[in-house]
Design goal:
The structure holds two protein chains of two kinds.
Chain A (H helix, E strand, L loop, with lengths): L2 H7 L1 H17 L15 H12 L6 H15 L5 H17 L7 H27 L5 H30 L1
Helix pairs in contact in A: 2-3, 2-4, 3-5, 3-6, 3-7, 4-5, 5-6, 6-7
Chain B lengths: L1 H16 L4 H20 L1 H40 L1 H36 L9 E11 L4 E5 L12 E4 L2 E9 L4 E5 L6 E6 L4 E7 L5 E3 L13 E4 L11 E7 L5 E5 L8 E5 L19
Antiparallel strand pairs in B: 1-2, 1-12, 2-5, 3-4, 3-12, 4-5, 6-7, 6-9, 7-8, 8-11, 9-10, 10-11
Classes of the chains: A mainly alpha, B alpha+beta.
């Protein structure tokens, strides 16, 4: 089996990782109206939590670490902050998943909200400790709200892909 | 429907199979902490790694940016067309004002040249610059930056000021071979030594990760009025003197903030000044650690 045929045969397994990486890039593009760029939705985090909830086998630790490092590079923050956030998000979501029997779209929305809170909290905390600067908390709150509003669209699109993967 | 029920069955099986393997969890956490502390303690190593990844991913980012950038531009154009009457009205007023100012500038410029000749003053430095394309705008509450499609291959150096039509936008914070990152003046980690020429007051501006800049030092800023223009002072050797930064605005509590005149997010191209000592006309030895 060649490297390329191996890649092709595992394309479904790799798709969540690539989708999350692409959505992380899309978050950095001018998708928001002028003047509201700092509260752009965290599409990468929404996608990450969706796949952790629905396909934790594919969105493993390695994928989570790759997404974290990629986010750190894209945002230009200290290397490791997003990586740590992503690992904590996965750890907590899996813990909760084992206690709740069933996952519906509404549950996924709850998981996404929780992930966003964890992600933003860790990032805010780390940036506050490292740079010890005044922090614009309003934009963090609004970024969370905007991400939560946008998340059903991302969940719906990814749900279609998930259905195709499971057939 | 069968697809959905299959999905639910699969989810149940997967949840049973997937658990937080303690060893893998510990390894992942250790990796993240090592990465975090090493990048904090040894910023050079993490910088090299970040720049390498950014260089490799810049082409992908550029490919995704192009169509979304075009759509965004189309919406802006559409908005401009809808508001064409109001825009035209405002521009006509502004044009009348500018005509008056232009006449004054012509007289002042002639007077300035004459005085320079009399005092035998040397000419100002003409900075060389490179026009660079923005391929990504980092819209976050943690950091305000953009990624440019130019790097060391285009003679970009670390710390180079980035501007647009003599207005300061930021400086080069990371530089790879094909791409570089500009930290915007609105970022919380950027400080700008500035001057308000009309009142001869020197201030230090700081970004606040919002749309406005804050005044950091404790000089009496009560004399400032809304509409005062702020320029770079050139102190600290970080930015050239005389670049326009923004305009003073009054908050409801009476304190002053600075509104940048151009938003980095509204632009598609910027100018990067050649900031190597030789390009600035400096031919004496200066601290080389500041420049790559």
């Amino acid at each position: 089996m060649t490297f390329y045929s191996y890649i092709l045969s595992n394309i479904y397994s790799l798709s969540p990782l690539f989708i999350t990486l692409i959505l992380s890039i899309v978050s950095l593009l001018p998708i928001m109206p002028s003047g509201t760029e700092e509260i752009a939705p965290l599409l990468g985090v929404i996608s990450l939590s969706f796949w952790v909830v629905n396909r934790p086998d594919i969105m493993g630790w390695l994928s989570v670490i790759i997404i974290g490092i990629f986010n750190d590079v894209l945002y230009g923050s200290l290397l490791g902050i997003a990586c740590l956030s992503a690992i904590i998000v996965r750890l907590i979501l899996i813990k909760i998943l084992h206690k709740i029997d069933f996952t519906s779209i509404f549950h996924t929305l709850f998981y996404v909200g929780l992930s966003l809170i964890i992600w933003l909290f860790i990032n805010s905390l780390a940036n506050n400790i490292i740079y010890s600067n005044f922090y614009n908390y309003y934009s963090v709150i609004f970024q969370f709200l905007v991400s939560l509003v946008i998340s059903p669209i991302i969940i719906f699109i990814q749900l279609l892909l998930l259905k195709k993967m499971s057939i | 429907m069968s697809g959905l029920s299959n999905l639910k069955k699969l989810q149940v099986i997967l949840r049973e199979k997937t658990s937080n393997n303690i060893i893998l969890t510990i390894i992942s956490f250790l990796f993240a902490f090592v990465l975090l502390f090493s990048s904090y303690l040894y910023p050079n190593i993490s910088y090299t790694l970040k720049v390498k990844i950014l260089d490799y991913s810049s082409n992908i980012v550029n490919a995704i940016y192009s169509p979304i950038g075009t759509i965004n531009k189309s919406f802006t154009n559409l908005n401009n067309i809808i508001n064409i009457y109001n825009i035209n009205h405002d521009l006509t007023k502004e044009n009348e004002n500018l005509k008056n100012i232009t006449n004054k500038i012509i007289i002042l410029e002639a007077e300035n040249q004459e005085l320079k000749k009399l005092l035998n003053l040397s000419n100002d430095i003409n900075y060389k610059y490179i026009t660079a394309k923005i391929i990504s705008k980092v819209n976050s509450s943690f950091i305000q930056s953009v990624i440019l499609m130019v790097g060391k291959n285009n003679n970009i150096s670390l710390g180079s000021p980035v501007l647009y039509n003599n207005t300061l936008l930021g400086y080069i914070n990371e530089v790879g071979f094909n791409s570089s990152r500009v930290l915007s003046i609105t970022d919380i980690n950027v400080k700008i030594p500035s001057v308000i020429l009309d009142r001869d007051i020197k201030i230090i501006l700081s970004g606040s990760n919002s749309k406005f800049l804050e005044i950091l030092n404790y000089v009496d800023t009560s004399v400032l009025k809304a509409g005062d223009k702020v320029f770079t002072s050139g102190d600290g050797n970080m930015y050239p003197a005389g670049l326009f930064v923004g305009t003073v605005r009054k908050k409801l509590d009476g304190s002053n903030i600075i509104e940048p005149s151009i938003k980095l997010n509204d632009l598609n191209y910027v100018q990067v000044i050649g900031w190597k000592p030789k390009e600035r006309g400096i031919d004496i030895n200066i601290d080389s650690t500041l420049y790559e």
